[in-house]
Write a structure and sequence with these properties.
The complex is a heterodimer of chains A (246) and B (262). With 246 residues, chain A is an alpha/beta fold. Chain A has two domains: 129 residues, Rossmann fold (3-Layer(aba) Sandwich); 92 residues, no CATH class. In chain A, 35% of the residues lie in helices and 26% in strands. Chain A has eight helices and nine strands. In chain A, the strands form two sheets. Chain A has a six-stranded mixed sheet, with helices on both faces. Chain A has a three-stranded antiparallel sheet with strand order 2-1-4, with helices on one face. In chain A, a hairpin with a 2-residue loop joins strand 8 and strand 9. In chain A, helix 3 crosses helix 4, helix 3 packs across helix 5 and helix 4 packs across helix 5. Chain A is globular and about 60 Å long. The two termini of chain A are 37 Å apart. With 262 residues, chain B is mainly α. Chain B contains 14 helices and no strands. The radius of gyration of chain B is 19 Å and the shape is globular. The two termini of chain B are 22 Å apart. Classes of the chains: A alpha/beta (246), B mainly alpha (262). The interface between A and B is medium-sized, with 32 and 30 residues.
Chain lengths: 246, 262
């Protein structure tokens, strides 16, 4: 069974400034006579998610929409296990892959091949599996002889092509994306789209945050509308999109 | 909380291949554009040992034959301790992009700092056999004791790295404090001076509390063939044990906050 369950999940993100970042100031605070610095803990907090209850099960194709700063990315990070909820609970089963930053861990001084190993291992792919698939990855990226050069010599598009080829090597059970990936030129884009569709088809739960109506309608069967850190609407994509994209 | 921290360590140990890749990558990217690579440090270390050795040896009127091996081993190991500790402050900070994208056990970044410095030390340590051959200094089987010593040293350092990495992610003025503190420790530890120069002074008893003195002692004496003090081992084992418990509890408590601090 693949699922993600959020029970009353809230996330408070602390905003640090020079004062609250300082150990010296924290240690000296009890001694300080100034009234301003005695304000409780003095750390500003943004409540990014408030009491989210959510149950994602197999077959769910979730679209997440909402204005900038409404909490979409924070929600993705909670689903992905990066942010532990400040309060509430998250339960999940199934391996999760996120295609949010496909240039994860890339080192500009290292060659393409070395970066395949770094990124692959960061994504939890074992060295042997990378070794077995290395030709496949290089072929897909179409980097040919460039693969032996340090990636600082690559163009942005080439880096993305490499990152995409590695990060889509394995089929995850849960796939999380922040906007659709557009990688490379027109030809490569076709390959990217067909590979993504392939992954999507086999993935059990898919989560996509996007601002694009077409993407959401084409790929999702259920949409969450996030507003100010809460779920305003949770319904079929048609229903929610009709209200959201007036 | 002890359990949370411990489980994180176990998960990271299973990813030791990843740690190794990251550590080697750090070294390679640091020295990639220089022809000699990490041997640059070895050379500058050798030059420093030669200069300091000649000057201080003359000042202290100690024969170079015995002072140089003492100084070389002391400086090389101290360089290892101090770079592990100062780099520990940025263990999580430098991994921010990975931490915010891919959930991995945080101990991965701790072990990465330790491992890459072990690799760098492995380069520097080549100075020692060269020096010993040059000075025609003999070694005995006692040298084998360096293996358990080294394991103890690493275990001792890890709890400090853990604590500093965590605190520095939250308090960004800590790295500066740590680097000034390291300066103080450097001069109050017998590295540039030998312990018997001070052994008659009362203050030396205080300096004996300095764990770095003992860390150096247990690494140096197997190499130099001087007598090994069981007390140093005992003192360090006790400190390591309580240090680990303290750090792991602290770490387990704040583990989940790291992503928010970065």
């Amino acid at each position: 069974m693949t699922y993600i369950r959020l029970k009353n999940v809230s996330v408070d993100i602390p905003i640090f400034n020079a004062n609250t970042r300082s150990l010296k100031k924290k240690l000296l605070r009890p001694l300080s006579l100034s009234k301003i610095s005695q304000d409780k803990k003095g750390i500003q907090i943004i409540q990014a998610l408030k009491n989210i209850n959510l149950n994602l099960t197999e077959g769910d194709r979730i679209g997440i929409i909402g204005a900038n700063g409404s909490g979409k990315s924070t929600l993705l990070r909670v689903l992905n296990g990066i942010y532990a909820p400040t309060s509430g609970q998250i339960l999940s089963e199934g391996n999760i892959a996120s295609l949010i930053d496909i240039s994860l861990g890339m080192n500009s001084e290292a060659t393409g091949v070395e970066n395949i190993y770094i990124q692959g291992q960061l994504l939890g792919i074992s060295k042997n599996i990378i070794k077995e698939n290395i030709d496949k990855i290089i072929d897909f990226s179409e980097l040919n002889e460039f693969i032996e050069l340090p990636i600082r010599t690559y163009s942005t598009g080439m880096c993305l092509r490499l990152g995409f080829s590695v990060s889509t090597l394995l089929q995850p059970e849960i796939l999380i994306m922040d906007e659709w990936l557009s990688v490379g030129d027109a030809n490569f884009s076709k390959k990217v789209n067909s590979r993504l569709s392939n992954l999507l088809e086999k993935t059990k739960i898919f989560v996509l945050a996007s601002h694009s109506k077409d993407l959401i309608i084409n790929n999702c069967n259920r949409v969450l509308w996030i507003e100010n850190g809460s779920i305003r609407l949770d319904n079929t994509s048609k229903e929610v999109c009709e209200q959201y994209f007036l | 909380m002890l359990k949370t921290g411990f489980l994180d360590l176990i998960k990271a140990l299973k990813l030791i291949n990843l740690v190794n890749t990251l550590a080697l990558q750090d070294i390679q990217s640091r020295y990639r554009r220089s022809a000699l690579g990490p041997f640059w440090i070895t050379i500058s270390m050798a030059v420093m040992i030669a200069c300091v050795g000649v000057i201080f040896g003359t000042v202290y009127k100690i024969p170079i034959q015995s002072f140089l091996p003492f100084l070389a081993t002391g400086l090389i190991f101290w360089f290892f301790f101090s770079s592990v500790i100062s780099e520990s402050c940025s263990a999580f900070i430098e991994a921010e992009r990975i931490i915010k994208q891919q959930p991995l056990p945080f101990f991965v970044y701790i072990l990465r700092v330790v491992l890459r410095n072990i690799y760098i030390m492995a380069h520097n340590i080549l100075i020692i056999p060269v020096l010993f051959i040059f000075l025609k200094k003999t070694i005995s089987l006692q040298i084998l004791i360096i293996i358990p010593s080294f394991i103890l040293v690493i275990l001792f350092l890890i709890w400090i790295v853990l604590l500093l990495a965590l605190l520095s992610a939250r308090f960004r003025d800590l790295p500066n404090t740590v680097s000034s503190l390291l300066q103080v420790i450097f001069y109050t530890t017998p590295i540039l001076w030998t312990a018997d120069l001070l052994s008659e002074l009362f203050i030396f008893n205080l300096l004996k509390l300095n764990p770095f003195y003992h860390l150096l002692e247990i690494l140096r004496s197997p190499l130099l063939g001087t007598s090994i003090h069981l007390k140093s081992y005992l003192y360090l084992i006790v400190l390591t044990f309580f240090g680990w418990i303290f750090s792991l509890i602290f770490y387990g408590k704040y583990l989940k906050r790291i992503a928010y601090w970065l």
